[in-house]
Amino acid sequence: MTVIDHLSPRSPIEKLSIEQFEVIARAAAREDVTLEYLNGQMEIRTVPDSDRNAILMWLMRQFMTQRADLDLNVTGQGLKVDSYRKGRARPDGILAPVDHFAGQGEWADPQGVLAVVEVTSWDSDTNSRDRVEKAHAYAACDIAVYLLVGRDDDSVTVHSEPLNGRYRNINKLGYGHTVEIPGVGVTLNTDGLKRYAH
């Protein structure tokens, strides 16, 4: 039995240090969960299911078609996020220039990241984690755009204009609308997401 077997989402672990979290994350690594560290607490996420992966691949094709000079990294690259970079997150997708993460290691600085993408899961924590905590963490480190695909309500939400740990502009649209990614020069026709609607 590993350390992860003793933990459940939102386990009452109080304020770990970054160093403690990274040791636990390495020791507890297994294929069906991912660990993140937000607001001084360890978060446990299940790995993406097939529809979530299909959505990420659909997004990757959209970005690559319009901006071949950018990568949508969906390989689990970690980012140092939250106030003063004291958080650790693994966004479902990270939009950055080609080879941006070369040589940066497991937990990269978010400087130079153009956008992050999250696709909601079906667990009970997805609302607070993806719509609240991650929005604050990504805004706190000035990531210009946070794109959230909400599978629970078939929506796409674009968060932009980070200021003081909050996104000032939040635009939520249902699948089928045209969604512009500010500052990136990419427009998504989200009609293709309807095939993943529930």
Low-confidence spans: 1-10
Tell me the span between the first and last alpha carbons. Answer: 36 Å
Order of helices and strands: HEEHEEEEEEHEEEEE
**Total strand segments:** 13
Mean pLDDT: 84
Give, in spatial order, the strands making up the sheet with the most strands. Answer: 3-6-8-9-10-11
**What overall form do the CA principal axes indicate?**
globular
- Number of H- or I-type helical stretches: 3
Helix/strand-derived category reads alpha+beta
Rg of Cα set? 16 Å
Residue fraction in strands: 25-35%
What level of helicity do the residues show? 10-25%
Biggest sheet overview: 6 strands, mixed
Description of the structure:
This protein has 3 helices and 13 strands. With 198 residues, the protein is α+β, with helices and mostly antiparallel strands. The radius of gyration is 16 Å and the shape is globular.
